[in-house]
Amino acid sequence: MGRFFIVLGLVALASLTVSDAYAMGDVVRAAASVPVVAPIALAALTAVQMPRSILSMPRAEGDPAKVLANLTKAFEDFKAENETKLNAKADVVTDEKVERINTAVTELQASLDSMATRLASAELGGGGSEGPVSAEVRAYRGHFASYFRQGDGEREVKAYNVKAAARTGSNPDGGYLVSDEIETTIGRVLGKVSAMRQLASVRTIGGGSYKKMHGVGGATSGWVGETGGRPETATPKLAELSFPTMELYAMPAATQTLLDDAVVDIGAWLGDEVSLTFAEQEGAAFILGDGVSRPRGLLTVPTVADANWGWGKVGFVASGAAAGFDGDAPADALIDLVQAVRGGYRQNAGFLMNRKTVATIRKFKDGQGNYLWQPSIQVGDPSTVLGYGITDDDNMPDVGAGAFPIAFGDFRRGYLIVDRAGVRVLRDPYTAKPYVLFYTTKRVGGGVQDYEAIKLFKISA
């Protein structure tokens, strides 16, 4: 009899769509709590082709092609259920079903993006030979490892003042610059975790700040005949932009016993300890930083309604409602946001927002009934809104009164990140005995470099 119920359950569930499976989710979980029914419920749940979130799988594991197929199927189910919701107007069950599928689509897209990131990171990491290494670099790497494990006496500091890659390796006051392979690992994580690092221009400098000039108009020209006069034109106006670098630090700790263990990969340990911390701090600063002891963030520069835009401010387009999107035509303001960016910038433009905002926009349609949001069509491609790619950044605010939850534009031309070359490590065996602290610092700055290249979306009437 038990086998009969199992077969019957599987046959019934095999015909369910993703949305149907979602509606069954609570029933199956409740049934699983009953000892006799649990095996049947769990077997049936596993048999259904459901989004990965239901099975609580790690987002970055699995076959990308299967995740892409599940994403496409889930989005089709989402559209079908959302149409039912729009027609029914007041169906609580349908509302809940739509929200569950919407969450599944978000997580599937995030899973696909994570896979693409890991693939790209692996490609950046190489895997082949790094090529010939000079004697100076080998000596520096060896002494850095020795310094990391045992520290330096005064005599050793003077004896091993190794210069590698045209820079001073040791410094009695400032510690050591990490070896090149560790810095590459940290840089790779920074570029892949920090959304703005993926989008913006990045420049490495050797000093404390970077300055550049930007033309802001004023120059004139005109047409003349072959023998006509050439009157003097107006002098172009230039704006000086300054990007000072600020110090970012992390201080991981290790026991001396760990450091004495020759099996431990010191470079990998340090990279793992500080890279994600640096990336998270940077990511927040590039969006929300106030420019005091940190970079100036995109959302902290002066803003103005786009109709009154002028150099030195970022223009914004209002949503049309005080606390959200316009209820009658929510897509109109997004179209206005895209069109607010000049054509030359739109060629390489994209959206920047968090996943909650993406989930909200996923329900919007244009005047022809087409959904504004579209999923990735292949691994490595982002999802899109109005045909422009979306980059997720959890540092972007949620939709709310007065907030700027969406940015759109050419971020490579609009925002500049400045890195001071080198990541420095200072070994401290005294402050937190028996632990050895590694005060690790890098210097980075950032800010808007072209105020015309990026526009913001403000929740406002």
TrEMBL record:
The protein, known as = HK97 family phage major capsid protein
Q: Which UniProt keywords apply?
A: Signal
Domain of life where this protein originates? Bacteria
Ranges for domain Phage capsid-like C-terminal come to: 174-458
Q: Where in the cell is it found?
A: Virion
Its main subcellular localisation, reduced to a broad class, is virion
Give start-end of the signal peptide: 1-23
Which Pfam families does the entry link to? Phage_capsid
